[in-house]
């Protein structure tokens, strides 16, 4: 009984640390959205996408190692990772400028902590296997550090190389030459749960950021701002429902549990790697676009902000469609096509930001209604033989 109690206590401690880590990652996403809203440009958009994707692979790597944080040394390393993650988030606004070395060093520590957790789990691996895994994992931080030292256009080239290195590493992880005899992976339920919680936090933080960004108190709100706030909140609720309303996380868990280990890694990479990255980029960019709409709801939206808002919402729907496609869930094609259509609604911003926001909400609700109608029609009629 005492052993079971200690195990439960250790699990609770590790889960608490994991949630702190996840919250700090959400803070990073929020920082990126704010930076993009403060300085809208194609360069800023590219920077945001680059950093989201680069940091997303790091989060996914930690999410797959939930077991490693159950030990005392694992929790200590995770605590170091939390501190590094916090510094990464704080340095985001000037990550490609004056704070680039701080960002690069914190990112290197973040990746190094993950490598330590990974090695802790490779109890049955040979030295050569550990060397291969560690060597591949260290490529991206080396490129990030080099880019921070070089600066300028060299930074962009090297950091794009770091993202590509992570993509290649994820693909090579399934190759027999790289895979170890004891490749660690957390339980599917915890892995899926952490991604779901993260998505809730990202959407919730987006709503909170919108409210704070207005910088007003209740007595200063006018009718236009109330309409915009309610519409934005309804859109956020629709995006939440698009993933959780039909149990996508439950289906993902069942499919991952039933899959063979090798196939499970592939499914995780496609759904929680690529698809989720697109969803996060979508939310981040959409929030940046919302800032301008909230400030000037009845004015025409600028090309940048109008594109951010519609493109972000569309990317989110496309990401969910891809996610459902990976797990063989229905309506994947509908959501992908719907996402493309929603992204094209950026032209509504030429009328006003509010009109574009309402159009995106109406389009999102329409996708869900089409699904409900098709589900209802597919159900057998009561009493029919």
UniProtKB/TrEMBL annotation:
It comes from the Bacteria. Keywords: Membrane, Transmembrane, Transmembrane helix. The chain crosses the membrane at residues 45-65, 77-95, 101-120, 141-165, 197-218, 225-244, 271-293, 305-327, 339-370. InterPro entries: Low_temperature_requirement_A (IPR010640). Pfam families: LtrA. PANTHER family: BLL5714 PROTEIN (PTHR36840). This is Putative Low temperature requirement A.
